Amino acid sequence: MAKILVFGGSKNLGLHIVESLLNEGHSVAVMLRSESSSDALSNLGVEIIRGDAFILDDCINAMNVAKPNIVISTLGGKNSQGQRIDGIGNINVIQAIEKYALEIERFILITSMGAGNQFSKLNENIKKVLGEALIEKTKAEEFLYTQNFPWIIVRSGGLTHHEASGMYKFSTTEDLTTAGCISRKDVANSIINQLTSDDFVGRAVSVFGTEI
């Protein structure tokens, strides 16, 4: 079983990923901001490392404390000052991996459909609503493409709070016309498959539901 460090694992999709990892028997550590509640993670028996992804040294410290062989980041959203973590936070995580003394087996960066080369395919209304976040996520994706360690970008479709259905699929195309919404639990389960599969290493892949 792997030792896995998760950035952005305290709630929503990240917390579902942590739960799925634990169910598979993996050892999990999560970097958590000092002001964030740790109750849910503590109840799961997760190792908690306090730190702020806006600070590179905190990300490096989390790597050195956890000593993971797999790293996952679901970082997204804004802090209390209105700064987006999607770009700089994920870039800090990537730089921390680069500076880590030991080799990692895999880094999985979870962004969103519409990021990267898919952005130009979006209609203008979606760009107005999600453009800021997608632009920041794209910065992180582009930085990751310059790295030599094994990585996968997973772009999730529109997220729901539904139970896992198992009805999801992967796509490496830019076509978004058949992409249905997907539950956070299904995304979490899809990530488990990427821990050992080499199908998408060094590539960006979309995961979405099968119903429009």
Automatic annotation (TrEMBL):
Domain NAD(P)-binding stretches: 8-197
Entry-linked InterPro entries: NAD(P)-bd_dom (IPR016040), NAD(P)-bd_dom_sf (IPR036291)
Coiled-coil stretches: none
Pfam families attached to this UniProt entry: NAD_binding_10
PANTHER family registered for this protein in UniProt: FLAVIN REDUCTASE-RELATED, NAD(P)-BINDING DOMAIN-CONTAINING PROTEIN
Name of the protein this chain belongs to: NAD(P)-binding domain-containing protein
Lineage: Bacteria, Pseudomonadati, Pseudomonadota, Gammaproteobacteria, Cardiobacteriales
